[in-house]
Known about the structure:
This protein is of the alpha+beta class. Helices cover 25% and strands 20% of the residues. The radius of gyration is 14 Å and the shape is globular.
Amino acid sequence: xxxxLFCRMVAGEIPADVVHETDRxxxxxxxxxxxxTHVLVVPKEHHPTVVALAQADPGLLGAVVRAAGEVAVQxxxxxxxxxxxxxxxxxxxxxxxxxxxxHLHLHVLGGRDLRWPPx
Length: 119
Ligand code: 5GP
Ligand code: ZN
């Protein structure tokens, strides 16, 4: 049994509020949302960071990014052919960025004004 939280959610061992799923990706609501929409998009396969995934399987990274876009449309953050009202996709890498779960995840955030830089 893995001790990776998101692998366990993918395996159905820990409940997840799933909003989008493909054969290779899963998206579920963050347990501690930082915006009205805060969804995490993960590859079903374990990869620790975005760069590790880009090196190991760029096609899978593309599938994760595409899933993030589909979540944004589904959540009303963008039209299929546009970017209005807009949203943010971020991924934290390492302790200085506050990465706490070492299974790559894209945060999809929206539904409020998102300041930049985020601080
Ligand atoms: P990180 O800090 O690694 O970029 O993001 C990890 C995210 O996972 C955080 O936003 C945190 O709220 C979320 N998270 C932690 N534990 C759980 C959980 O058990 N379920 C869900 N849905 N999200 C979680
Ligand atoms: Zn994992």
